[in-house]
């Protein structure tokens, strides 16, 4: 079950996408219809249903004129006599404004819009955005707020904001939400979007800018209204006549126009926008449920009091805010006090800042409003983790996009989650945003300690999101692919969640669909519906792409187990046996080796890097594949397999030519990688590199690098000198490759010469080299006296492969066998045999072709039978496991095999005719033609020649060009021949003479054979037949009375000249030019093509029997008896395929990985030193310097102002100090002769302002905060704003007039206090609310919080406490509650624990320890009622009966509303602030770290 996942939804989606590709033309209309139907059923608007005239102009209280009301609203009977009320007299009806909106103009995109009711559910709006408008769910929500009117910002700040906003939206896939109108901050956002659209020039990566505007405040909205929707609606910006209304911004992509039934009222959309943002923030981030929600950030520019309320509400909802300093008004006010202690943000300071930044608008502000705003600003400053100020004068943020993302991470770090959970959430956010720079600077720091398992979720998200930079970063920071892909479910998940556009997924879906339909005939419907995707399905598809010669990459479920091997040891001694010793040793099964078993049930070892590389290649993801390839071990095989797969996908699956071309380019790229790695290996150790080519790779279908390169048609790889050296070595067999040809030929005729040293053998050379190396090592050891330096001089990766057992010299018999079994010798014997066959064939045809076959002809027939048997053997010989069908296709696709088949077929036909008396001569003719084909077949023999082989390739290419030329030539030949024949001859009915006149004669004209029948001067009537009755003479032309040709002589001569002009001059020169082009084109690649094609010839003669025809018949008889009669397996040789022992394979792969690292290092060095890279680096440096200069220029004035301000403060402080010195001296009776000068007044001012507050700040530094929140819980009555400096009762607060709240009722007072309230006064100070509020009584309300603790185990590894889950608040709480003064335990404990446990705990009250007692900063506190708590610690013995009862009770609460659980005493526990502080005290009591 672990290796398969259900595919039904994904399968259906994949098939639907495939079907939709064929119906793109009708998709738009059908989408419009479905959208219109959905909106009619779900979306409403609001309209007035009670017309009440408010003035003489006929305008209703709702703001609309009478003509905009329905008839039923003019005089409704239900509302007669009532006063117009917006909540009662406005009702919802189906909306009539939706569709596409087009603003016109250059570069404008078509957007979407809809008119919605202000009471619309945000779930419906989110469904509209994602499902109907097809917007992908965001990874980030950016809510931009601020000034609604046009305002000025410095050009550099404007550019920074626009660039940063678009960058963060583009890189993270964010939604931008604004007010949607063409003014103020919304206009700045629209301009940023427009600049991006014009610069990008495409719809890819479109920025989603959603405008949430008030429908009644939109100017020129009439074109948007239509009951069936507008597709599109043409909207024009009319800024001149808009009046107090606003136009929609023409650069937003989507509009939600909020309607409350009124006209001309602003701010209607605020509540719905807030609810929509809150809903989006609760949606999961990404495709998988990881607990991370979509983050929301508020960006503030400029703004007024309404913006302050927006910021305040957002931060209370834990939404981080980014303030742009320098944008003006409120943003600058908040920016100037940000970072200051709350005590310094006084009413006086806010007054000064308001007056400075709001200008004349400040005069309209009342004192109570400024007090309220100051309170909100203080609360905002109290949440620094949610407030970020972007200042151009500081470089710590960089651009606006970095400031926005860092603000989100800062808010996340301050959330309830702690430890690795917090870091993992931040990493999930960074991955979703695809911001590697943020992850490097803010997440992967020294403070964070990562384990591989902590990064697996982020790795999975990065892979599915195709984010290669993040994948590389995660690998660098500790992700172990073995652990990540250790569970097959992860790999199966990756394949299941491939994008629907992936061709491989569509092939996989079709395979499963076919299997499902096939199995549904034998399975029950329930069983057939449960088919799943598994790695076996993936393996089948990959095997189809690689080829049938490979084995399945992944095992069948239930039969194999797949696991990843342990990390190989880095420093190992590599002692591979030389290849020369193994080539002559036949193995019964090349796919089996020591220590391995190929039977089912074997434990298969996989390469995790290779699996990930394969997954990326199947999607044509170049960057991901590159990273995975660097992590793979069997890298050469992986690169060649990728080349094969990509070429197959480009051939079969690419629906677009561009995609197919990308696949071919990527295939070429990995062929280059394979060449590079193999070149490094070959330069280091040639023998070991050759072993790498023929090693059976268990990770890639039990095949070899050489076989993969051949199947992928990687000619450049096969043409590498190392591969060619291997082929040459196989070609020579056991003979040395440097033997001259004349010596080999001489030894073929006089084989005793091989015992005289006349011919070199590789075994002898290896023994000699080993002896020389051993002598050298002994000499060095004798000189140094130690073996250590020898080991240091020859490290692991430079030691040549050698057999530790030593090499034995060849015996007399093995030398003889080695000579005649060498493919080279076999080839030369076959050449001699073939020439003898042709000589015998020619003698029979020319001299000895009798009615009764002679002995020569009989020998010829036997010879041919041996050739036929050899062709049959080659057809059925399948050492690579292709299968007969694949082998037959390969046989037919070879031109030389076609010639063989044709020659044998003609010989059989000719022989059959020749044996009959009637067709004797015809048989000889066929055999003569067959002789030509046999002679042409002789060219295949010379392919092995380095001189003639490339020329044969050029001839083959020119033959293809010749066919094209003959097609063009035939047009002219037939055209001229038919015209000439028709003009000269009248009604010729003899077919042979027609063909002669139409085709043969015009063809001969090209070669200079001029016709004599087109010129009257050469006409001879005796040379032709007048009526065409004589079969040996052509028919005479049409004659006149003088018996002379009547045709127009001038016409035939002109036709001949034109024909010769085009045929002889134009076409023949065209043929020469084509041949020349082909020669030049092929000449550069002929060597590569020849090296690639010689493999088949080498392989053929390597497996060919040693005896040449016709003696080869003896070998065929022996093979027939062995295979058919005795049924023995064929002999296999390790020249092309060898399975290494496990240890040797690990050593070889480790060495290959080392060489791969060297290759990648050299590639990076070459790339860094290339001219293109240097130009790019220089351009980046110039851009960086330019940006720094611009930033310095823009911030220079700001820095100067700050320096002057700082200097002024220092002067003021100096003046205060001097004044203090003078006062002190005067107090001591010291006087000067002259009057002391007057010091600067600012110093006095500052001292007078600061001195009164200093003693108070020193006396008390803490004031309650929760008790002064403006929103009182479960009440619509807000508190009176109480500033920080006005909290103490001792400080006068003349304007203080809080409301009175008692339970659910509000008592309106004139400011005087009732007698019942005068007795009580909150010890924490003013709260902004009088009465008892939501508490039970006036004065102190006592709460008892018992902390029941225990040790987790006998070793006291952790201290635990009994916690109760509060589902409403989502927090863990203590099992306490309100009590009367005489009650020992709260009633809540009785309700949770039960009577029995409650009574037993009650008996332990005398043993408790009082941890804390005092005032609680509770949100329910008022001026007259407050909460006081007593925290008691009851420590229980974990082995007592009471503990057992509590444990059983806790188990019974699983699934209940109040879940009870033992939880570790830790700061990670989510609790309210005062209970967390109580836990800290308990931890200190038990001497534990909190």
Features:
alpha/beta; 10-stranded mixed beta sheet
Please provide a brief summary of the model:
Helix content is about 50%, strand content about 10%. It is α/β, with parallel strands linked by helices and about 1500 residues long.
Assess the beta-strand content as a share of residues. Answer: 5-15%
Could you tell me the mean pLDDT?
79
Number of helices: 51
Helix content: 40-55%
Task: Identify the overall geometry.
Answer: elongated
Please provide the count of β strands: 26
Q: If strands are numbered along the chain, what order do they take across the biggest sheet?
A: 9-4-5-10-8-7-6-11-12-13
Oligomer: single chain
Counting helices, strands and paired strands, the structural category is: alpha/beta
What does the main sheet amount to?
10 strands, mixed
- Give the low-confidence spans: 1-27, 522-531, 566-603, 788-805, 1239-1260
Radius of gyration: 47 Å
Q: What's the end-to-end separation, in Å?
A: 43 Å
Architecture overview:
The chain is α/β, with parallel strands linked by helices. Helix content is 50%, strand content 9%. It contains 51 helices and 26 strands. α4 (155-172) links the parallel β6 (140-146) and β7 (174-178). α22 (608-617) packs antiparallel against α23, α22 runs parallel beside α24 (635-652) and α34 packs across α41 (1049-1103). The longest helix is centred in the last third of the chain and has 57 residues, at 1171-1227. The model is unreliable at 1-27, 522-531, 566-603, 788-805 and 1239-1260 (pLDDT under 50).
